[in-house]
Design brief:
This is catechol O-methyltransferase. It holds the Pfam family Methyltransf_3. GO terms for molecular function: catechol O-methyltransferase activity. Its EC number is 2.1.1.6. With 214 residues, this protein is an alpha/beta fold. It has a single domain, classed as Rossmann fold (3-Layer(aba) Sandwich). Helix 4 links the parallel strand 1 and strand 2. The model has no long low-confidence stretch (mean pLDDT 98). The structure holds S-adenosylmethionine and magnesium ion. The site of S-adenosylmethionine (SAM) has 18 residues, from helix 4 and strand 2.
Amino acid sequence: MAELKEHRILEHVLKNAVCGDPQSVVDSIDQYCRQKEWAMNVGDEKGLILDQIVKETDPLVLLELGTYLGYSATRIARLLKSGARLLTVEMNPVHAEVAKKIIEFAGVQDKVQVLEGSTQDIIPKLKAEYGIKNIDLVFIDHYGERYKPDTQLLEDLSLLRKGSVLVADNVGFSSSAEFLDHVRTSGRYDCTNYPAHLEYSNKPDAVEKAVFIG
Ligand SMILES: C[S@@+](CC[C@H](N)C(=O)[O-])C[C@H]1O[C@@H](n2cnc3c(N)ncnc32)[C@H](O)[C@@H]1O
Ligand SMILES: [Mg+2]
């Protein structure tokens, strides 16, 4: 058995999911993390909220802050229309490596690009190095303390347009309090809170949708 949980999850996916079928990859990760070992994927319950927001937004250009094993990237990618592109940022090289394998196995590698590095280093390069003008949907799911500064970076670099949608996971926890205060009180966003539970548990958690109004 692999030493790292992340490698054990990868092994489970390779053995139990169907190559080229992203839904089976998502389902096999959820099954493993509910039955065997907890892991910090957005998970099946909050995943349905994320799915709904992605479908409503119908985005072409997407950014994810915090890839982990590529669960949410695969989940999002399975809903994207042709030509849409998700850039997902991950600073931990072990996580990035596993995510690339999972994304490839799911068959969504043409829609998803894993960018290795920290969000604070990569966000300022999105325009010049990755040809991004602005972003239709941002999934914020790294560490709560970075939610606000990274949102402000996106604002300051004009990466958000009127109507850009931010979706932030784990706002039921205090580490994202400054972010919540910012989006709810700056007058620059229309916010909606979706109460739910922490992935694979019955602890209260929530997802925040914040639509940039300029
Ligand atoms: C909660 S996990 C992401 C889960 C993933 N979105 C999913 O639902 O499948 C958070 C990830 O963010 C990464 N991370 C934390 N801070 C970061 C930063 N400043 N820049 C890039 N990655 C970061 C961690 O290494 C970890 O893999
Ligand atoms: Mg999360």
